[in-house]
Every structure is written in structure tokens, then in C-alpha cells.
Design brief:
heterodimer, A: 137 residues, alpha+beta, mini-chromosome maintenance (MCM) complex, domain 2, 2 domains, four-stranded antiparallel β-sheet, B: 348 residues, T-fold, eight-stranded antiparallel β-sheet, three-stranded antiparallel β-sheet, globular
Chain lengths: 137, 348
């Protein structure tokens, strides 16, 4: 659709609504975005990589990157792509870190405990009103 | 739509309030996670960011100190580290009293109270049995060990095989024979929770959750609302079976047959052993959650109740005032003690 074609529906929308309606629509849109962030956590901006609880690397979540960390059971691959990150272990028996999949929200963690490798998405404090604060298991 | 002049402004304020965006600064909770005690240990704190930098630094130092305390406890009580004081006791000759750290002796003394009250259902001397089954190894086992080896272990593993003596300052421990070896996997995480929380409080942090592999201990609250905790559903990997809201010091420990297990010939074999049989406990329970203010006690009781089953388990609970429990039976029905905090979640 060319830019000119947008003008007609926009004019109709402007004529059919008051400033109050438009303010309400804007506020609703802002609210929906804010609610989404509160429920899921804000998107992360960087990835921290820990080996035996020592920070061994920090990397921006933008762009594409991949590298290997020497885990206790062998190499663990850390990948970054399109604002998300994941780890892949090859010799861990249950591959729990790999099964965690891609993570991209602030506070999310993936770990291979037998390998001693943990990755964590950073990006500011986590939301104060997430649904559950912790799970007993 | 009919508007007065102030309507848009009022609507905007209402919309912002409805989505939680108040004009004042929002409180924040921060979670830090480390790999300790063979699991993920997380500390979540709640604070107001008004006096941001100084408080954040104090909070960071407090959380670091708590993690150091957990790491220290792991260094003392791990049965996986060959150089830990606990492992050295396991390597020492049997039938002789050996000196041990007063801290270790104190924890064993507290555990033995549960051992005695539970008629041996809670047992801190199962290291040889756990090694025999292989649940402490990676990968976890897929087959049942030779039954004759379990029988041989059982013949020599009598109640009272773990004896403390000496003084408070210079305690001694005697392990009766090779069927007894220390494994504190059913009590040490609870103790670590207690110590981590004590360190946080010493450091001026009064609103926090310490989570050691799913064993939780809370202090304070999340501002003007309680901490909101879930209890994992034993048969729904991502689901919870109950939600607990708490705004006071509380430990919540769950023992279940779903964490480490294998299926062999249609039978589930898990990692919580009945010391009286040498096999995984089959008491009719699939999940036990114990609440108590004391983490050490809650941890020990959750295992004891799982082994004993619903009737005997709830009877044991009554011997420890202030402790409460939620049990899920094999048929997925729930039983709870009168003072258990929390509401079950309806199954889909």
C-alpha cells in the first residue's frame, strides 16, 4: 500500500474520534506493552557466561555470535542470535541446558550443572510483579 | 462518546493505574543465580530503588556473602568432594570414633532427632546405598542393582549405626560398619538455607527468597504484598499444584519422586530411599511439601514424611510443632495438615 493510501483511513479515524478517544487508544496501547513487559520481563541487553560461578564472558545480545566454553565434561557452545542466547552441551548426560532453548528476557537462566556452565540474560532488574517469585520442587 | 474537558486526562490516569504504571518509582526484585551444592542456588531480593547506588552495593555485598556461606557449607558437607571433612569421615575406618567439626556434629545431632522420631525413616547414613544405586552419578541409572547386593547392604545397615559422642567442642562420630556412610543430601540444603538467610539479615537484607534447588526460604515480603510461591506439580513439568503467599520467615521444602528417577519394567525408581528396604520409598506419596520456619528441620521432615506415607507422616509432623505439610498421593488426591499455608491449584 502506498503512503497516500493510508491518508484516507487515517482521516476517517480522526474524524470519527475525539481527542479523548485518541488519548484513550494511546494509553491502552502503552498499557498493553507495559503489561507484556511486566508479565514476561524486559528484553535483555547482554549475556553473562559463568564457569564454576566465575564470570568468564559478557556479550551484547545483539547480532550473531558463538563460542565455546570449557565445561567440566567438555566444550559447551554458547550462541547469540537476534537478541536471544542458548547453550548447547554435548557430553552432559541429560542435556538440560540444551533443552532450555533460547532465552532472551532479563533474568532468564540456562545452565548445565554437570558442566559447571551457566548463562544469564542481563538487562536491568526483573519485574516486581511477575506471577510467581519462586517454585518449590 | 461524550467527554468533558477533563475526561481524557482522567482516562489516561486510569489506564496507567490499571497497568501498574504509577508515577512513583517502582520497587524491584533482583535474582542472582549460582551453581552450588550440585544445583542452582538463587537469591531474590526486593528493594526500593530510591537510594539506588548505595543500597544496590550493600545488597550486592550481602548476596555475595550469602553465596560464600553456601559455598563454605558445600565445602564441608559434600560427599562428592574427596577432600571435604565429610568425605574424610566416610573414608575413615569403621567401628572407631573419629573427631569431626562441631558444626557437622551439630547438624548430625539435629538430624538424629528426626531419625529417632521417625523410627529410622530419615537416615543420614545412606551413602553406600546411594552409590550402589548410582543416583549420585551422571548419567543417572537406568537399571536396578543386583538385589543380592541390596540384601547384603540391608543385613549390615541397622538403626543406630551412626553414633555421636564426645563434647560439644570436641565431638566424635562412629560409623558402625561399611554399610553406613554419611550423605547429607536430605538435610544440608535446608541448613544452607538457614545460614544464607542469617547472613543476609546480618547484612541488612530483610526481604528475600533463597532458593537452593527448589528448597525455598523466605524473609520479609515483596513490599506491600506477600511473596508468591508455587509448589511444582509432580506430574506436570511446567505446572504447579498449589500457590503459597507468605510475608513472614518460612521454609518450604518439597520431596518428590519426579526429580531423579528411571522407569524399569513399568516401575518408577526414584532417588528417595526407604532405609528399611534398601529400595526407593513406596509409601503411596508422590510429593511432600513441608513448611517450617527452620530450614534444616523442614528439609529432614520432607524426606521422612515421603518415606513414612500419609498417616505415619502426619503423625510425625505433630511431634514438631510449627511444621506443616501438603501431601500428594498416587491417585493425585491431596492431604494437608491444618496449618499449611497455601491454596491448591485446580488441575486442568
Amino acid at each position: 500500500m502506498s503512503p497516500g493510501r493510508w491518508r484516507l483511513p487515517w482521516r476517517v479515524l480522526v474524524r470519527a474520534s475525539t481527542p479523548g478517544d485518541r488519548g484513550l487508544m494511546l494509553a491502552s496501547a502503552v498499557g498493553i506493552v507495559a503489561l507484556g513487559l511486566l508479565l514476561e520481563g524486559p528484553p535483555g541487553s547482554r549475556l553473562q557466561v559463568f564457569r564454576d560461578n566465575r564470570l568468564v564472558a559478557t556479550h551484547a545480545l545483539g547480532g550473531t555470535a558463538g563460542w565455546s566454553v570449557d565445561g567440566r565434561l567438555g566444550p559447551v557452545i554458547v550462541e547469540i542470535r537476534q537478541g536471544q542466547a542458548r547453550l548447547r552441551e554435548y557430553r552432559s548426560p541429560r542435556l538440560i541446558g540444551t533443552r532450555t532453548g533460547w532465552i532472551g528476557r532479563a533474568g532468564q537462566v540456562a545452565a548445565c550443572v554437570p558442566c559447571g556452565v551457566l548463562i544469564r540474560v542481563e538487562g536491568g532488574p526483573s519485574p516486581a510483579d511477575a506471577d510467581l517469585d519462586a517454585v518449590s520442587e | 462518546m461524550i467527554f468533558c474537558r477533563r475526561t481524557p486526562v482522567l482516562l489516561l490516569i486510569l489506564a496507567l493505574l490499571a497497568t501498574g504504571c504509577s508515577p512513583t518509582a517502582q520497587p524491584v526484585s533482583r535474582t542472582t543465580t549460582r551453581l552450588l551444592m550440585g544445583t542452582l542456588v538463587s537469591i531474590t531480593t526486593w528493594s526500593l530503588p530510591t537510594n539506588a547506588s548505595a543500597w544496590e552495593e550493600q545488597e550486592r555485598q550481602g548476596v555475595d556473602a550469602a553465596f560464600r556461606e553456601v559455598a563454605r557449607i558445600e565445602g564441608v558437607m559434600s560427599s562428592h568432594r574427596a577432600d571435604s571433612p565429610l568425605s574424610r569421615l566416610n573414608q575413615a575406618p569403621r567401628g572407631i570414633a573419629h573427631p569431626l567439626l562441631p558444626e557437622l556434629a551439630d547438624l548430625l545431632r539435629r538430624g538424629l532427632e528426626v531419625t529417632n522420631a521417625s523410627g529410622g525413616a530419615f537416615d543420614m547414613g545412606l551413602d553406600p546405598l546411594i552409590l550402589l544405586w548410582g543416583f549420585s552419578r551422571e548419567p543417572p541409572p537406568q537399571t536396578v542393582p543386583d538385589p543380592q547386593r541390596i540384601t547384603a547392604w540391608l543385613e549390615h545397615h541397622a538403626p543406630g549405626g551412626l553414633t555421636l559422642s564426645g563434647t560439644v567442642e570436641q565431638p566424635l562420630l562412629r560409623l558402625a560398619n561399611a554399610s553406613h556412610g554419611l550423605d547429607l543430601g536430605a538435610i544440608a540444603k535446608g541448613y544452607a538455607l538457614d545460614r544464607a538467610v542469617a547472613v543476609l539479615q546480618e547484612q541488612g537484607i530483610h526481604n528475600a527468597i533463597v532458593n537452593a534447588g527448589g528448597n525455598l526460604r523466605t524473609i520479609g515480603a515483596k513490599g506491600d504484598r506477600p511473596w508468591r510461591l508455587g509448589i511444582r506439580h509432580p506430574r506436570q513439568a511446567e505446572g504447579v499444584m498449589a500457590v503459597v503467599e507468605v510475608d513472614r520467615p518460612l521454609t518450604m521444602v518439597t520431596s518428590g519422586d519426579y526429580e531423579r528417577f528411571f522407569i524399569h519394567q513399568d516401575q518408577r525408581y526414584h532417588h528417595i530411599f526407604d532405609p528399611r528396604t534398601g529400595y526407593p520409598a513406596r509409601s503411596g506419596l508422590i510429593s511432600v511439601t513441608v513448611q517450617a520456619e527452620d530450614g534444616t528441620l523442614a528439609d529432614a521432615l520432607s524426606t521422612a514424611l515421603f518415606v513414612l506415607g500419609a498417616e505415619q507422616g502426619l503423625a510425625l509432623l505433630r511431634r514438631f510443632p510449627g511444621s506443616e505439610a501438603l501431601l500428594m498421593l498416587e491417585d493425585r488426591s491431596l492431604r494437608r495438615s491444618a496449618g499449611f499455608i497455601g491454596q491448591p491449584v485446580a488441575e486442568p
